[in-house]
Amino acid sequence: MSETQEPRNGDGTDAPGSDGGGLPAPRAQGPEVIGVRKGMFGAGNGGDTSGYGGLVRTVALPGASARPYGSYFDEVADELEGALEEQDLVPENAIEKTVVDRGELTFHIAREHLLRVARTLRDDPALRFELCTGVSGVHFPGDKGRELHAVYHLRSLTHGRILRLEVSVPDADPHVPSLVSVYPTNDWHERETYDFFGLVFDGHPALTRIMMPDDWQGFPQRKDYPLGGIPVEYKGAQIPAPDQRRSYS
Amino acid sequence: MSPISNDADHSSARETTEGTVYTVTGGDWDEIVQSAAKADDERIVVNMGPQHPSTHGVLRLILEIDGETVTEARCGIGYLHTGIEKNLEFRNWTQGTTFVTRMDYLTPFFNETAYCLGVEKLLGITDQIPDRATVIRVLLMELNRLSSHLVCIATGGMELGATTIMIYGFRDRELILDVFELITGLRMNHAFIRPGGLAQDLPPGAVDQLREFVKTMKKNLPEYDKLATGNPIFKARMQDVGYLDLSGCMALGATGPILRSAGLPHDLRKSDPYCGYETYEFDVPTTETCDSYGRFLIRLEEMRQSLRIVEQCLERLEPGPVMVADKKIAWPAQLAMGPDGLGNSLDHIRNIMGTSMEALIHHFKLVTEGFRVPAGQAYAAVESPKGELGVHVVSDGGTRPYRVHFRDPSFTNLQAMAAMCEGGQVADVIVAVASIDPVMGGVDR
């Protein structure tokens, strides 16, 4: 379990807020805190009869890993760092952190270097990640200054490998460079992520809505966007809409 | 908007800023041709769909045509968007299978398996899934591959006017759906594969019916060969249509039969095995033709290979559990047929209600609250009949998915439509789209 009992001090919790400007908040060392969970049964109102109401737990995603990463991950990381150095790019500037979790390799990339990293991963003979399986957005409202994450999975058919790139940007400045020039397959995927999360992919040939109607307001898969729905009657009782039901935290 | 000719049963035309817009209702082609001949603009934009019998559901094709030649082709999608990914975030992890099975409704078992593999990776129980559950998953997926390819070939044939293939395809698919109904209780939308294993074991008689099915299918499969493979009209319509070579496939991220028709034997069951596929014997067929005909041949051969895997699964079925031993994850209910269809076994209810307070609490907690999944993210991919079906699952440590994203192969492959159709004939658009085999439930989710 990556949950810890006590909130960490200075680990992203006191990062500059979204009104502090367009730059992503500095990277925290250790687990990435994305929120705080209170209580046990999700009931925020009424008296606490369970005794669990005072429970406070920090929700944190797995933090940076130290070498050796294991499997083919070290080789991929070495090759990528070497290839970036050849292009006069300091690897530490591009790769903010490397996470190995559950047998999967994730590079957290600074957005200004995403295009270069992706091109290197695709073209370098020792890397050859030819196939991008698109982009998936994730919204972490609790990850202050890095609310919106864009996650890419790259597959190398040549070497039979897979890795993940993750770029996180603040809600105040939701711009990510488009990868369409490197992986044309990302065309529709980036439109979808824009449609649902409001992530703006700079350089995309035609960034328009793809699933929702063209004149739709808001970005439906953000966490603050309600699911909607109507109460349903079942055997005489009213069952509230799914997003109004009690959730277990 | 001022109607200039308005006959309720026939075509109508109105002037817009974009030019004259005709609404076609069928049987009124002469009027359209006459009106269009009068216009001084040569460029015609045709909206095909979203309600059109040959666009595979609610796909809208926007074709700019010059005579019979398509000069520009675009897709309009989103007509079947149901917000499944958003809905998942408001249900517990087990209930998620009920939603994902409805995405690409022709490949429910692939959606369920991919989702469950992702959740199991997050839970760290991938190694603990019982063998019997994994074998049944493979068995169901391969049967599902057969039924999906049968629909593709059947509807593809129908769109060419080859209705016999359609009848044959749906006849054989019905046999598979009967098996699904026997095993899961439903023909589609099963929610049978659950995180940790399966909802329940195979019912009595399932193996016998499966053996019977394999026998029938072995007799029926060669009929497609005899009927279509060498048929000169069929070949004339399919060959060199919907051309997409290897570099085009790689750039556009096309996987599945489209990629294999360009000669690359990429199949996740071989290159990144899951569910023990490395232990089964089967071949990955390819062709070098890059066209619709090649994709048809590949689907035919893949059906034969799937049948091979089904036979191997039947040999491997050993008695045993179909759910992980971990009682914190395994659904405690003993499902049995009640008066309202599927329900809890009365014996089980009597046991937990009458004898064990702890069992009752445990049952109640797991069913209403669900289990917690440690925070993190995982990606699981399976080779669906259409290509790489990838699932990105994110957990924040709660009882509900934080985010689930499906990389549906139909969605990605459909992008190739423009590359396949531009410069070709209008009639070939139908063939090319049919060879992509898009299912809008998966595209729009």
Automatic annotation (TrEMBL), chain A:
Biased composition (Basic and acidic residues): 1-11
Gene3D superfamilies xrefs: NADH:ubiquinone oxidoreductase, 30kDa subunit
Superkingdom, natural source: Bacteria
Start and end residues of each NADH:ubiquinone oxidoreductase 30kDa subunit domain: 108-229
Predominant location: membrane
Keywords: Cell membrane, Membrane, NAD, Quinone, Translocase, Transport
Pfam families: Complex1_30kDa
Subunit details: NDH-1 is composed of 14 different subunits. Subunits NuoB, C, D, E, F, and G constitute the peripheral sector of the complex.
NCBIfam families: NuoC_fam, PRK07785.1
Family: Belongs to the complex I 30 kDa subunit family.
Name used for this protein in its record: NADH-quinone oxidoreductase subunit C
Organism: Streptomyces virginiae (Streptomyces cinnamonensis)
Upper taxonomic lineage: Bacteria, Bacillati, Actinomycetota, Actinomycetes, Kitasatosporales
Gene symbol of the encoding locus: nuoC
